[in-house]
Fold this sequence. Notes:
This protein is α+β, with helices and mostly antiparallel strands. It has three domains: 2-225, Rhopdopsin 7-helix transmembrane proteins (Up-down Bundle), CATH 1.20.1070; 234-328, Beta-Lactamase (2-Layer Sandwich), CATH 3.30.450.20; 356-565, Orthogonal Bundle (Hypothetical protein af1432). The chain has 21 helices and seven strands. The strands form two sheets. The chain has a five-stranded antiparallel β-sheet, with helices on both faces. The longest helix is centred in the middle third of the chain and has 46 residues, at 330-375. It is rod-shaped and about 145 Å long.
Amino acid sequence: MYNVFAILFLISIGVIIYMAGKNYANIDSYFWSILLVIPIILLGYTFKAGASSVDDARLAFCFLYLDSTVLLLLMLLSMVKYLGVEIKNWIKVTAYIICFLHLIMVWMCKDNDLYYATFQITKTPLGTVTKMTDGPLKKFHYIYLAGMFLAIVFVFIYCITKKKDCSKRALKVYGIFGCAGVLGYVVEMVANLDFSILPFLYVAGDIVIALQYEFIHSHDMDCVAVEQKKEHADRGYVAFDNQKALLGYNEKATFYVPEIDGKQIDARFTREDIRLTEVFYPLIDEFAKNGKASGDFTVGNTVFRCTVFNFCMHKNGKSLGYLVELQDITAEQGYMNLIKEYGQSLEKDVAEKTEHIQHIQQKVVLGMATIIENRDMNTGGHVKRTSDVIRILVEEMRRQGLGNLDDTYADEIIRSAPMHDLGKISIENNILNKPGKLTDEEYSIMKTHSAKSGKIVKAILSGVEEPHFVQTAYCLARFHHERWDGKGYPERLAQIEIPLEARIMAVADVYDALVSKRCYKEPMSFEQAAQIMIDGMGSQFDPMMKPVFEACREQLEAYYQKHREE
């Protein structure tokens, strides 16, 4: 049997060499520990079969007991891992402690009768046979085996009944060899065999598990990801400690940052390493401050992105430093530039189309206003003049910082001005062009034009213009005849209930009526008109408009003087 066990030992060594030749990227610590422990166990069986004394046999048993202690625990933990069963870290640590305390107890009892009360060897043609009787401490061995057996049974039952995401095939592989091991051990005890059958089982299991390694680990996403990453190794990595000293880098990193090749490990970059310090150190400082950092850099025609992470050697461990990932984003950047250029081109086209539509729309509105003015013999040029006055007033309000008028809102008010009297299109000519004072009934009809102006504005602009502009134009047209004191129309709004755009339009509308010639009156002097406007501030007009009107007075008078001369 000595030679047989020796051959089994050599086969187990061959399995290790076979697996080493496979060059797997991700090392499974449990599996490789099992591969290394089995030859040691087989070496113990070989030594036992060739032992020439009790001391030699006892020493061989120190190796043999690795199977029922360390090997059994490694098998259990390996099974737990690949069946996807979560296990607390403290449970794992406790299991290792118990395992090695058990093994140390066996070693320490090598030269006494505490573990084995009697220990005899017999020479046979097949090798040395050992016969022992149990000592008082041997019962701990049976307790340990019973605990491990129950743990294995529990895991199997749990996976069969609760775990839907574990491999049934892997479960069968572990189950068959787990049951075979227990059965072999029981058979040896009951039959009192001279030589153990377990070494054959160990080697068979060693071979089968080695051949099934790729299948079993195909269920481990960490292994799959590592292999995939190996095939697509397009990222560079540079590691620094917490003091920013260089710890190492992979080959791909030298492609992105050639200057790093050959730099001193465990040392910070020097002042001569300008490019390296510019790329890495600011990002590391930003990460240390904000918990995240990323930046893009260009080398020749390649654009790469640096992203900083913390790294540690075990789960929830203390950070050992910084890992900088370098990723080629040249293609991505090219796509982004194309999208940006397309977006800019599209935005330009949209802006041009929008401007064209707005221009057409403005022409339509002005055309309608012109038609109305042509019907209204009393207010010739009123639309254009009030539009110009609105612009003057709005610009002055912005200079004085009144009304919180931003660029968009100011532009909307100016663009809305020509639409303020569109409702007059519904007023009959005999009322619209009456040279004298209107009767109460006629005046009531005339006052409806402001509400109708608002409706027409919404009908023209809704669905074409921005909602905010539609609302501004609507409010300006509907409420420009409201008064600050609440005596206006159509809804008798007062003070800030009146939209700001309507309050501004009221000033422009009334001032133009005062200083312009009508068929039933001559234009009022600038002095008289200005006094009426100033007196009306706080009653007819918003008092906020007083400093605006006073500041614009000369400009307005010059504007109207020019039109009178024309």
